[in-house]
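Usage

Read records sequentially. Each one opens with the input sequence:
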Amino acid sequence: IPKRQLGSGATFYLIIKNASDRSVRNVLLECEFDAALMFPGRREKKIGQRLGTLQPGESKEISLTLFSDVLGSHCCRFRALADGDELVWKSVCVEYEKKQLDLSVVGPSSRSIGSRAEYNLKLSNVADVDLNNIQVAVTYDSALIPREASIGSTRESDRLTWTLDTIRVGEGVQLQVEFECEVAAEHACMRVNVTSPDLPNEQVSACLKVTPAQGVLDVQVRDTKDPIARGEETVYEVSIENRGLQPAKDIVLQAKIPRMFRVVSVEAHQGNQKLNLRPEVNQDILRVSPVLELPADAFLKYTILVKAIGSGDGEFNVTISGADAEKLETQVTEITTVNR
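and closes with the structure output:
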């Protein structure tokens, strides 16, 4: 019986194939599952999906992820129907065990083509014993191109892997991978799979939307050091390129600063020239006085130095606006992790 940790998702992969020599109409796939299993956002214990008509030899693949916070063996019963008649059924069970490893991924939900997406992978030992010989594998969709990864990674044709000897009781490990977003995608996903002889396989995924740059300003944001510890500093770099044919006027940067940071300094450069701008911080909002003009094809760069005064995962949210709000307003985000 497959095993999962409490609170983790159990993903079932189903392939429905018409093995006959004639079309099958009004195909419906149903799943009924034990009370201990949960489908996110639904209270029912029975769900279904209509597949329409399957031509001879045609197949469709479906995945379903269920969760549980109850120890023990929990089962699902799948059945395929056509015109209301049951054609085939299958029962599958999953054994849920006490949680030993906490796994999470922190990263952006959207990016523009040509920008980079940085993900932090967090593994924490919540068991009563050390966890040994842990294998971490990251796979990713073709829209994401890995450019940087934490030390110790091995890159194969379609994945990045790490081998961790030991995670001691109460301790954790953080890994990082940075992807370049090459093409537009509604859902560009990366998946993390953790295996060890000491625990069930653990999986988590994260997806983002990749879109063409909006308006005439191409805005990118990155943090120079992530993760950091409380008391340390990092720099947010905000780069702006005017891709239009005309100068962009009255460009204003406004940023919502994560609660765990205090702004230390703000600088702006247009090309090699340092600009004399006035930054103002009101509670958690930073606003910088306007840049009067950014010529076509020119670059503007802000460097915002912050110091960590708290801990957690914080989202740095930047809005760039200008005199022509419809063409110029752009919003970008970057997530930074501060450890205790």
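Summary fields computed downstream for this record:
- DSSP finds one helix and 28 strands in the chain.
- The radius of gyration is 25 Å.
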